Each structure stands twice: as structure tokens, then as C-alpha cells.
Amino acid sequence: MQNQITINDKLLNQKGILNHAGWATDLILEYNRTDIKASKYKIKEWDYYCILSENKGVAFTIADNSYIGFIAVTIFDFDKAEEISNSIIVPLTMGSFNMPSSSKNGDIHFKNKNISLKYIREKDSRIIEIDYLNFSNKLNLKGKIVLQQAEKLESMVIATPFSENPKAFYYNQKINCMPAKGELSFGTDKIIFSPENSFGVLDWGRGVWTYSNTWYWGSASGKIDGKLFGFNIGYGFGDTSKASENMLFFDGKAHKFDQVKFHIPKESYLKPWKFTSNDARFEMDFTPILDRYSNTNLLIIKSTQHQVFGRFSGKAILNDGTEIIVKNFLGFAEKVMNRW
Comparing C-alpha atoms, which of 104, 178, 193 is closest to residue 147? Predict the structure, then answer.
């Protein structure tokens, strides 16, 4: 059953339990950190941006996971199948990053002696400013990217409970298909993003998570036949009986579909993948380019991540039955296992 949430309401009731489980195309439920009744150490809040052009890309993370804060920047070169990452860990942040309670407004700025990372929200845009000293090999990373977010642009929103703990939940918005314009300087190299061929996605997440989870997530944004097209696919955590997070985006409108399956080769994440859906509305082949792999093992805390960038080819079917043919469409798909 796919339960669409259509009314404005508070996300949590007085007991700290979700008022509504389901999906929407806008952030209409009101999140407030002070409404949470679970342990303050279990609260996790993050904003993750990924911006891709045809041959380059960049990702930014600001996450306040209460017992630990995490700031990360990664740049990608798809021609060389290479990535460069750097990150900062801050202990016991406990909400001190002041993450906004909505994606619709509020800025974020993390700064220390090595890095200044800003997320600035304006009416029809999102601005990312980075100034990272000694990002890699004593080279600095600096620049500014503007993502255009038209007011009419619909998004994927899901409110997911966890059956193991009634006070655990995940409130998530994915905003695809944001044209990007800007430039990053890395040493003497320039990474240029043009709105004709560069697009960003925002993963906005707020919630209380259970200890052990595995998730699958895929995303892509671009243009087909001159119109914005993208998708969000995923599964693997929480009680999704009221809604999955699978959604297509075409010309600013969202098209919900049911279940999707990631067919990942056992021998290697860099072998070709397949994606299928139970309603035949999303059928894709995926040719990997780059596996951004990380493995953190701090005994109690463990995270194993494979974020694989590559090209999707296949078909997607909109709500009205229109078939969209997808060819060599750049995006990513990932499998992440966490104990946190």
C-alpha cells in the first residue's frame, strides 16, 4: 500500500511517534528536534549534496549524528575513474551544528582552521561555498556552486517508522533535477559546472535510527528530450509497508511507483548491474565507472559503503503510461551497511 500524505501536520505526536507514515511530493510535515522522545544520542540529521556533470562531479556532506559530527567533500573524475575525498570528524556534536528543521529555509556553515563549508538557501536556489585548505596533496579546493530549484519542482518525501522502536523514524527528502552552475578550483585545475549538462541532488535527512541497518539508494538527474528527468530509488531499512521511496521526475512533476530491486553482481561492484521493478515501470541496466568505497570499523560503530557511479540505460514509465527511454544516463547507486 502506498499511502500519500496530503495534509499539513506535525511529524511527531506528543509521544514522539510518527503521526503519518507514507510519502509526499513536498515537505509538508513539520519536523522539530525538540519533539523527539528517543535518546538524544540516536538523533541523526544531515544534508548531502551530489552534483554531476558529464565527466566531473562533487559531493558535500554535513551531518550531525549527535555522538559524532561528520563533514566530507569528494571530487570525482569519471574520465579517469578516480575520486579524492577528505573529511573531518567532530565528537559529541549533539545538535550543535544547528541543522535547519526544514529544507525550505535556513543556512548551514561549518568552519574550522582548515575548512569553510556553507549551504545557503535562497528563494529559488541553493548555494554551496567551499574553501578547503590542504584538501589533498597540499592543494586547496575552493569555489561556489549555485543549484536552481524552481518553486514548482516536486520531490520525493518519505516518513518511515521502524518496527523495532516506535520512537525511531526517518524523515527524508530527495530533491533531484536541480541545474548547477559554478566553478571549483583544485590547485591549478578547474571543475566547471554548466546548467546545460550539470545537475544536483539534495539528500535531506532527519531522524532517529535503530542500531543496525542496510540501505540501497540510487539517484540520477539530467535532461531527456530537452526536459528535466531524474529518479530516486531505494529500500532496505525501516517499515516501508505504507510507502516506498521510488519515484520518477519528469518536467518538474513526480511520478510514484512501487518496489524496485537492485541486482548487484556478487563478484564485483564494478560489473554491470540490473534494476527491476514489481510493476515493470523501472527497468534499467547499469554500467559502473567508479566505486567510491569506504570501510569504517570502530568496533561499536561500523560503516561499509559502496557508492557506485555509472550510466543507466533502459526504460521508465510515468503515471500516465508514457515510456521514457533512458540511454547512458549518469547517476549512482549504493549499498551501505551501518552499525551506528
Answer: 178
CA–CA gap between residue 21 and residue 171 (Å, rounded)? 9
Grid coordinates belonging to 87:
573529511
Neighbours of 136 (CB within 10 A): 15
DSSP H/E element including 272:
none
Domain ranges of the chain: 12-24+35-339
CA distances from 47 to 28, 138, 218 (A): 18, 27, 16
Residues 284, 51, 148, 64, Cα dihedral to 10°: 110
Q: For 54-89, how does the pLDDT look when each residue is reduced to its tens digit (9 = 90+)?
A: 999 999 999 999 999 999 999 999 999 999 999 999
What is the spatial distance between Cα 108 and Cα 106, in angstroms, rounded to a whole number?
A: 7
Tell me the chain's radius of gyration from C-alpha atoms.
19
Q: Is 234 helix (H, G, I), strand (E, B) or coil?
A: strand
Which CA distances in Å does 176 have to 18, 126, 138, 155, 209? 25, 13, 33, 7, 24
Asked whether 243 and 2 are in contact (CB, 8 A), the reply is yes
For 256-290, write each residue's pLDDT tens digit.
999 999 999 999 999 999 999 999 999 999 999 99
DSSP state letter for 4: B
Beta-ladder partners of 49: 60, 202
Sign of dihedral through CA atoms 204, 219, 292, 161?
Answer: positive
Name residues whose C-beta falls within 8 Å of residue 6's C-beta, 6 or more positions apart in sequence.
Answer: 24, 28
Q: What is the 3-state secondary structure (H, E, C) of 111-141?
A: ECCCEEEEEEEECCEEEEEEEEEEEECCEEE
The reply to whether the predicted model has a pTM over 0.85 is yes
64 contacts 99 by C-beta, under 8 angstroms: yes
Q: Which residue type sits at 205?
A: G
Q: How many CB atoms lie within 10 A of CB 282?
A: 26
Please state the separation of Cα 233 from the chain's center in Å.
11
Q: How far is CA 91 from CA 68, 71, 150, in A?
A: 4, 12, 37
